[in-house]
Amino acid sequence: MVDFLNKNVLIYGLASSGVAALKLIKSLGANAFIFDDNLEKISEVRKSIPDCQFFCELNEENLKNINYMVISPGISIYNPKIVVAKKLGITVMSELELGSLNCKSPIIAITGTNGKTTITLMTTDILNASSFNAFSVGNVGTPLCEVVQDLVKEDIAVCEVSSFQLEAVQTFKPHIAVLTNITPDHINRHKSFKNYVACKKRIFENMTENDYAVLNADRPECLIIAENLKSKIYYFSTKGRVKGVYLKAGNIYFSDGYADTFICTQSNIHLEGEHNISNALASICVSYLIGAYKEAIKYALNDYTEHQNRIEFVKKIDGVDYYNDSKGTNIAATRACINTFSRPIHIIMGGSDKGYKFDEFFKDLPTNLIYICVVGKTAKKIKISAFNNGFVNIESAKDLKLAVLKCRKKAIAGDVILLSPACASFDMFSDYIDRGQKFIEIVNGLDKK
Fold first, then answer.
1. Alpha-carbon gap, residue 319 to 413, rounded angstroms
2. Domain final residue pick, 94, 121, 145
3. Helical H segments across 174-229, by residue range
4. Where are the alpha helices (DSSP H) in 52-177?
5. Is 149 helix (H, G, I), strand (E, B) or coil?
6. Residues with Cβ < 8 Å from 163, sequence gap 6 or more?
7. The pTM is what?
8. What's the gap between Cα 441 and its chain centre?
9. Using one digit for the tens of pLDDT, what is the confidence trace for 248-279?
10. H or E element at residue 32
11. Does residue 449 belong to any structural domain of this protein?
12. Number of domains forming the structure of the chain
């Protein structure tokens, strides 16, 4: 625990996590200061929380009396203002760290390039079905700081954790940490893939032999990371028997390294795609380690459906199925989405640039992907990679609506039209949720031919 009483604490970044952090540090007796690069945000927050001081700019003079700075996920540690703060000896921490410092309940933390939202929500459902009191928090939507004072030691915080949040942690220590996979993502933020990997590894750095690491045995990068962990290590795998949870001949088992226990069958999982089988195995492993009942696991899996913006069925029009996968914000996620379909696919891709090349996307491309329409800032970049790799059935559109119409013109009954951008959304939308909602609105507004 850190004593914030009468300390000067600056909240930098006033989106939902920043506001939650602000409310928390005020309740802990700190002297609250706020700053955001968007001055309208400062004005907006001061209307609802008037008794806090604010800065219109950050410089050495303003920062000289600050003890702690809490940054939102959108604020990079490479930000010049953060560099100045550290130079002045200010302790800089993420909203995640602040929440964890004040959390009485055990924390289950899930990270990885893809799959973490599904595992977070599915694990929460399984635990609640098994009479635990679990809450989904973190990058999944509700900031940990927003709920942390309502949690008691008997509760469980199931926290989706991003590389942005892990970038600025020092003491963060979950009881169970899950790593799904690591593929190139957010290179524009982290400067290099090596730095991105280092951020993901930080989820484990404070764990001890009394804690549990749960890793994907089917991913070489996870096996490498497992070599240097202090915690107990369990795995999940769709390929073969492991210490943890694995799939064999349509059955799912938990192994403690000696004896195997039958949990349920693959048929209890109603999500499409091998990646979702893997996600379910991770959720089962975590839940079983906590003490979930086998019947509760089966019940929760049977009842679990895909959440919004992740391979979400929207509508069938003239025999063509429209799917919203706006949360597919990187190459690996979009490839995994494509692999869930065997029918012909017409896909909408593109958005703001996260710094990686798209040649990887076009290598060994599934033959059922027959048409691509690209939008946003990365449109030209994706087209160049497509042509360089021999994929020519690709066009550009000036906006999302025109992209939908171009795909519709190409598709016939039995085909799939899919929004799975493989890019962030910030060039044209406020976030991936906004992008997905606009796609749904466009599809729902289409007339039958």
1. 4
2. 94
3. 187-190, 193-201, 220-226
4. 60-63, 80-87, 95-101, 116-129, 144-147, 163-166
5. helix
6. 111, 185, 186, 189, 190, 196, 199, 200
7. 0.76
8. 24
9. 999 999 999 999 999 999 999 988 778 889 99
10. strand 31-35
11. no
12. 3
Query: Which residue range(s) make up the domain with 411?
Result: 312-444
Backbone angles phi, psi at 107, to 5 degrees: -115, 125
Amino acid (one-letter) located at 357: K
- Centre a 10 Å sphere on the Cβ of residue 426 and count the other Cβ atoms it contains: 18
CA-to-CA distance for 349 and 330, rounded, in angstroms? Answer: 10
| Per-residue pLDDT reduced to its tens digit, 390-405 | 999 999 999 999 999 9
Same domain, 219 and 134: yes
What SS3 state is found at 140?
Answer: coil
Among candidate residues 154, 214, 153, the one with its CA nearest the CA of residue 181: 214
- Tell me, yes or no, whether 2 lies in a domain: no
pLDDT in tens, 272-296: 778 889 999 999 999 999 999 999 9
List the single range of 70-79, 267-276, 319-328 with lowest mean pLDDT. 267-276
Number of neighbouring beta carbons within 10 Å of residue 109: 28
Q: Is residue 73 part of a domain?
A: yes
Q: Are residues 81 and 127 in the same domain?
A: no
Do both 234 and 110 map to the same domain?
Answer: yes
Adjacency order of strands within the sheet including 369-374: 312-317, 320-324, 416-419, 345-349, 369-374, 394-396
DSSP letter at 384 equals H
Q: How far apart are CA 317 and CA 92, in angstroms?
A: 51
